[in-house]
Amino acid sequence: xxxxxxxxxxxxxxxxxxxxxxxxxxxxxxxxxxxxxxxxxxxxxxxxxxxxxxxxxxxxxxxxxxxxxxxxxxxxxxxxxxxxxxxxxxxxxxxxxxxxxxxxxxxxxxxxxxxxxxxxxxxxxxxxxxxxxxxxxxxxxxxxxxxxxxxxxxxxxxxxxxxxxxxxxxxxxxxxxxxxxxxxxxxxxxxxxxxxxxxxxxxxxxxxxxxxxxxxxxxxxxxxxxxxxxxxxxxxxxxxxxxxxxxxxxxxxxxxxxxxxxxxxxxxxxxxxxxxxxxxxxxxxxxxxxxxxxxxxxxxxxxxxxxxxxxxxxxxxxxxxxxxxxxxxxxxxxxxxxxxxxxxxxxxxxxxxxxxxxxxxxxxxxxxxxxxxxxxxxxxxxxxxxxxxxxxxxxxxxxxxxxxxxxxxxxxxxxxxxxxxxxxxxxxxxxxxxxx
Length: 436
Hints:
single chain; Rossmann fold; three-stranded mixed sheet; alpha/beta; 19 strands; 12 helices; globular
């Protein structure tokens, strides 16, 4: 059995990668100090017989050497997370990035083991070109601005990785992550999507930094993980840098407006100068759009255009962002569902997204007016027990691992997903049709 080491495996992207590796039949070693990651992110696989978790610092050379020795391949995702943390702890940023990356490179080079190194679109800095290719210049600000220390340290990681490939042919791949969203992402480190969601669910206002005209692309974490795995399986990817994410652009103001509309059209949107949000003289990157030509042409499996997480199911609700198991009901008859006090967020290109439950619609006539489809979003597979037209699945608060059809079909059918609505009680939710 192949063994994979994932540093930062308890983080947002790392935990999804761990799940994907386990699903592929690999033994997985996870190294994470839990400074920004969480064991809750691995709740779904915590009892997996092929998972081993090590709580330790990435700077512990002895521990890293032991784990690299056991692994057949290494995915190095451990990093400082979020602009706020970078500004508050610049020395920690450098210590977390450069030294450990050099150590891992040295260890895997001696053993000729494939390595994936996670980088960031931040390395492009203030380069105004759109879209950005992997060969475009990196235009960073002055060293007196601590804001650029993250980008600089990640760029040095890339230089180190490529130098090992050029010197000894080490099979190393560098992935530059653009904005990624999905389950388990949190807003406490400045991530814009969960921050907007939290603000909207709290009744607003949604706080947009500066003028809101900054342009970003939000990729789904599932697409990013698929890209990582496919690149590592492709020999032609070795020694190259790849943009990873979506190339569907949206302004931050537009993003805030979309979230506000789905929660409450009357929610206020306020603007906050960077000087107040971070520090006087803070510089942000105005536009960041990737050119994905290289990744699409390197491996035919990556040619399909990834879905934009903003425009197609990338955000469903706060639980969707946080938990390993989640639901996204869809209305198939095309009717528009509205909520008087919606607590769920959804973006879809073709059908409205409805989330939540306030009271059980126990009457069969009520249930039959809905045609819902239960989805487990991480696999993007339909629940096999929700195929009957006119059926509806709700959750018993006393037994969240059981589902119940309000239409009376397959009562108490077991379905291995644990999910609970916000605020801990199903009684705080309600379905409401536009025609009601």
